[in-house]
Fold this sequence. Notes:
35% of the residues lie in helices and 20% in strands. The chain is an alpha+beta fold. Strands 7, 8, 9, 10, 11, 12, 15, 16 and 17 form a 9-stranded mixed beta sheet that branches. Strands 1, 2, 3, 4, 5 and 6 form a 6-stranded mixed beta sheet that branches. Helix 8 packs antiparallel against helix 9 (367-383) and helix 8 crosses helix 10. The chain is globular and about 65 Å long.
Amino acid sequence: MAEPGEHPRNPRMLSVDAMRAAVESGEIDTVIVAFTDMQGRLAGKYLHADYFINEALGEGVEGCNYLLAVDVELNTVDGYAISSWEAGYGDMEFQLDLDTIRWIPWLERTVMVQCDLAQTDGSPVPMSPRSMLTAQMERAESHGWRAVAGTELEFVLYKTSYEDAWKQGYKDLVPANQYNIDYSIMGSGRVEPTVQKIRNDMYAAGMVVESAKGECNFGQHEIGFLFDEVMTTADNHSVYKNGAKMIASGLGQSITFMAKPNDREGNSCHIHLSLRGLDDEVVFWDKEKNERTALYDQFIAGVLTTMREFTLFYAPNVNSYKRFAHGSFAPTAVAWGMDNRTCSVRIVGEGGSARMENRVPGGDANPYLALAAMMAAGLYGIENELELEPMTEGNAYESDKEQVPNTLREARDLLDGSKIARKVFGDAVVDHYVHMADIELRDFEAAVTDWELVRGFERL
Length: 460
């Protein structure tokens, strides 16, 4: 068996030996050690490369465990079991995944290593997003399966810098396109200097880039990547999202992945997923009968059965729920259909390409949490041999199907009361993310919004 870091995921990523040689030659002087936090952001440290090679590579890296117990603004908040003033805000270990060493082309002479999080005794931190996905991968492997996935992440590009956007209170930003440019070659061409650099830098960072296209909102675009093993997809997603923002910032522009940045179409993150055998055998399609397998139908049934209870893992913020609007291509009905974009679950492909698409997650979704939830749900469906309900035909927005939760509070309550979630994730994990929602709701409900000021300042 190969040692960790001996064979990179693809030839554009680095083995430990190649990295060591590049450090010695001066090609690398900085190593970013990073993990993905609850909010889906990269967090960690910038290490001098010589220190990384001679010390961290053998001794490891540590950081404060409050990083999984803060709000979006990194405020320490009460109520988390994992970390508190009473417990002294201790450390956790950043366990280096040496198969993830990649160039970071948008920074000079810099590479990144992604990490798992562990307690100081070496045991996993169960509510760490990467740990949650690992647990579901191990669950699938115990059945003889592996999961592959692709995430389709949309963003809105502005000619306004992040600094100016902050000063302007995020008002009057200048979108990179002034009209709907969905599939428009001219519209995409006008922003190609920025989007081309993102594509090429992500390729150099070890991702398999497919294409870019314009979308409906003003300045909205999507860059697609080839599907891969679920952890690789989640790792790439986090690096891409962080890198795209940094590249835009370096060009005096800004990108947002907010689910609903304005009154037009929101940013989606459609997730395609399928199971394979451990030797890559197709398990979702019966080649002889040329139809879906019972296993595939049970997987879909599990995702649908848990959709409402697991929505918090697909839509984690107050803003996430503004995206679910009638006729918006963001789903409102818990329904499945064949190549039907009005449903929350869209079934796509045949044979080896047979897969399900979850259309509920938005651009603000944490990929590890969303993929872990989909896998946990689908495996639950298989293990309990759930029967797939009849397909929804036509416009699911007009159907009588159950609805996706339309507020964070509703999603929070559904997860909190979910026996399935507590069974497949454990009470500690569920309570942790329910509390995350509580903090988000508390802060939002205490804020005075522009909407209130416009309606009430003079007229009430």
